[in-house]
Amino acid sequence: MSSNLPKVAWIGLGIMGSPMSENLVEAGYQVTGYTLEQDKIDRLVAAGGKGAASIAEAVRDADVVITMVPASPQVEAIAYGPDGILENARQGALLIDMSSITPQTSVDLASSAKEKGIRVLDAPVSGGEAGAIEAVLSIMVGGEQSDFDAAKPLLDALGKTIVLCGPHGSGQTVKAANQLIVAVNIQACAEAVVFLEKSGVDLAAALDVLNGGLAGSTVLTRKKDNFLKRDFTPGFRIDLHHKDMGIVTDAARNVGAALPVGGVVAQLVASLRAQGDGGLDHSALLRSVERLSGSQV
């Protein structure tokens, strides 16, 4: 293990955080993890990382603190307060928040951290569980160029496309746009699947040929099997996409951008959640189209 690599604290070991932190361990980083579930800390330890009993313990000696939690309230809960990151990380540490939250939360966090001498990047990701496991995530970053340059080698161990998009909050804005495109794309694929099946076409053959042309997409490549097998084991839950559609519709309203199709898909995601499907993968938008088309789901 190279001793000149920065020491990393990782807060949040969920569907994304666990494989991402393990990729850092594999790349030679010393990673100390903390999350609410002990079994997930144990998983990191088994992979060669260390466990901590609290946020304070995890971040105390860290050069870099990485957070990967579900939404703005969780980021605020782990960052602020006497037991939070800002009170317990050392001066000069770099906090990289990889959660998907509102751009304003990121701006506020960077401002509060600056007062403590802590540098911040917002660095949300796209690519889902598979992208996290394979270390091929797209990482959209907001913050200072110098902090981005310092973080780049570490981010290279987690993703493939890593881009500084602008000042604090910019990464979150680009992530919101990403989630808009993904949701609309899944919805279009779901509608095509129901249309094809009701027409009696061989679905697997149809999706193969569609994916080879202009209708092809990373969404269709990644989610084709979910559609074919009706396997909605969560790689990215409807609950989280519902949160993200709220972020993008709110942010778009604030800047005066109309999202007519995005608004409709946001409502379809919300309705799926209201029907009890919030814990399923976002490819379960197919279930919504099936219900609307008269199928018993």
TrEMBL record:
Gene Ontology biological-process annotations: glyoxylate metabolic process
Where is each 6-phosphogluconate dehydrogenase NADP-binding domain found?
7-166
Q: Which UniProt keywords apply?
A: NAD, Oxidoreductase
User: What highest taxon heads this organism's lineage?
Assistant: Bacteria
Annotated catalytic residues: 175
Q: What InterPro entries does its record include?
A: 6-PGluconate_DH-like_C_sf (IPR008927), 6PGD_dom2 (IPR013328), 6PGDH_NADP-bd (IPR006115), HIBADH-like_NADP-bd (IPR029154), HIBADH-related (IPR015815), NAD(P)-bd_dom_sf (IPR036291), Tartro_sem_red (IPR006398)
Enzyme Commission identifier(s): 1.1.1.60
- Which positions fall inside the 3-hydroxyisobutyrate dehydrogenase-like NAD-binding domain? 169-287
* GO MF annotation: an example: 2-hydroxy-3-oxopropionate reductase activity
Please verify whether the record's keywords include NAD.
yes
Answer yes or no on keyword GTP-binding. Answer: no
What PANTHER family does UniProt report for this protein, alphabetically?
3-HYDROXYISOBUTYRATE DEHYDROGENASE-LIKE 1, MITOCHONDRIAL-RELATED (PTHR43060)
Q: Which family does it belong to?
A: Belongs to the HIBADH-related family.
Q: What is this protein called?
A: 2-hydroxy-3-oxopropionate reductase
